[in-house]
Amino acid sequence: MIEAMQFDFMRNALAAGLLASIICGVIGTLVVVNRLVFLSGGIAHAAYGGIGLAFYFKWPYLPGTIGFSLAAAMLMAFVSHTVKHRSDTIVGVIWAVGMAFGIILLDLTPGYNVDLMSYLFGSILTVPSSDLIVMTVVGVVITALVFFYYPDLLAMSYDEEFARIRGVPVKALYFGLIGMLAVTIVLVIQVVGLILVIALLTIPPFIVEKYAKSLAQMMVGSSILGSVFTLVGLWLSYQYDLTSGATIIMVSGSAFVTSLLIDRFGFKGSS
Question: Quick check: pTM over 0.90?
Fold first, then answer.
């Protein structure tokens, strides 16, 4: 792995993976605690509509996809916040329509020759330096916003009614969280793809949640664990010529299963 670092694409891949892990550690913690995993899946798949728009109109990938994903995410947030008893159905419809819209636009794009698999399963080895700058800036902004609103996010995450009584603007905070989630998903799609992005968002927080004593510890621990999964996944993909994004998720999934087995049998074995 050390000798691979002489190549620019490997250094970019490592940087992209670590940045994605940190951002996912912060936002993924809030996703897990607020039970937004299904909504995250809806945003991830609807984001494909933004990919189709970007290619059809020849827009830059990130601005086009982020814009469409934010619009879809705000619609999902509105539905999930106001029509809770039907939100899963409506989110599922937006999920499917957004993805179908993107596929049709890609079909209609003249001279389209982009590898579909790179967006479904990630293309971490092709992340350009310009996108690393965007990921860094967005990561700093998201982390700063979470830090600034941490007390309110903490209150909303664990007791929404209590947060309202305390005067926390729960609705605005919820929409803001969904917006940050949408931006995070678009950035991470480049690393592990839209099909696997939910795993990177949710597996590290799920594992760390059992050991963290606070929301902040959970965010830090998730970021560190996600970084470890990324490093190990990249090393394995380099050693055995495997798809990087899928390998990272398989490492994460193996840790997830191990965590479940420890929970199930660990304490019984020590008693």
Answer: no
What integer pLDDT is reported at residue 271 of this predicted model? 41
CATH top-level class of 3-264: mainly alpha
Q: How far is CA 147 from CA 2, 34, 138, 150, 209, in A?
A: 35, 17, 14, 5, 19
What tokens appear for 46 in the block? 């609807």
Buried b (16+ CB within 10 A) or exposed e, 59-74: eebbebbbbbbbebbe
The stretches in the chain having pLDDT less than 70 are 1-4, 85, 112-117, 266-271
Q: For position 115, what pLDDT does the model report?
A: 63
Backbone angles phi, psi at 243, to 5 degrees: -65, 125
Map residue 156 onto helix, strand or coil. Answer: helix
Which residue bears the tokens 């191990």?
258
Whole-angstrom distance, CA of residue 184 vs CA of residue 135: 9
CA nearest neighbour of 84 among 160, 1, 147, 198: 160
* Alpha-carbon dihedral sign for residues 209, 214, 215, 218: negative
